[in-house]
């Protein structure tokens, strides 16, 4: 039995080695959200890297449909990049990055080694599953709370700004009035509804007025200039009696 087992291993060893040349990792697959980046590695064994010319292709299968080629990189090219894929050559390991994931990127990925001068020109690796999940959306019940919170913050900011502006205006008015008051330009406004001051009753009082009366001589009589006497000034006192109201009887007597 041991001899038979050794014979089977010797016969199938080359075949198994040939099938394990190209290995993709992670073998268990990936599960990532939309917008993220998926990275796979393809490892080529040293037996396949014995100076032969080859290139590496990446394939994608969806729902067990026919595989589609997605990207390619040659042995001597260090890196190649497209809008969707970035391939980096670290021989014997090749890395592929799937950028900006979408749900339609989900599927099975594997790499294929293309030998140009060997009988087995195509060697495929195992499959690795990629699952792209949708980004969790916000619940409708959470949106009003956020909107209410943002609106309340906005109202608080507006009220604070209005209060600050009102304080600045009041301070400016107070400063202006203080400055004008110090200059003496501010007058006390008239007070409304103030009782008018009562004027004392007018009492007629007899007064004595003094005047100057000049008596001149007749101008027709010529007087020599040398013998003209010195003009004299005489003063008279006139007393005005107290005014009495005019009554009808007094008026009649006056007329008589």
Detailed description of the structure:
Helices cover 27% and strands 29% of the residues. The longest helix has 42 residues, at 142-183. It has a domain at 28-133: Sandwich (Immunoglobulin-like), CATH 2.60.40.10. It has helices at 2-19, 142-183, 248-255; strands at 22-25, 30-33, 38-44, 54-61, 68-74, 79-81, 85-90, 93-98, 107-115, 122-124, 128-133, 208-213, 234-239. Residues 5-20 have low confidence and may be disordered. Strand 6 and strand 7 form a beta hairpin. The termini are far apart. By secondary structure, the chain is of the alpha+beta class. The radius of gyration is 63 Å and the shape is rod-shaped. Residues 14-133 form the Ig-like domain. This is PDCD1 protein. The chain crosses the membrane at residues 157-181. Residues 1-19 form the signal peptide. One of its GO terms (biological process) is positive regulation of T cell apoptotic process.
Task: Summarize the helices and strands and which ones pair or pack.
Layout: H1 2-19, E1 22-25, E2 30-33, E3 38-44, E4 54-61, E5 68-74, E6 79-81, E7 85-90, E8 93-98, E9 107-115, E10 122-124, E11 128-133, H2 142-183, E12 208-213, E13 234-239, H3 248-255
Parallel strand pairs: 2-11
Antiparallel strand pairs: 1-3, 3-8, 4-5, 4-9, 6-7, 7-8, 9-10, 9-11, 12-13
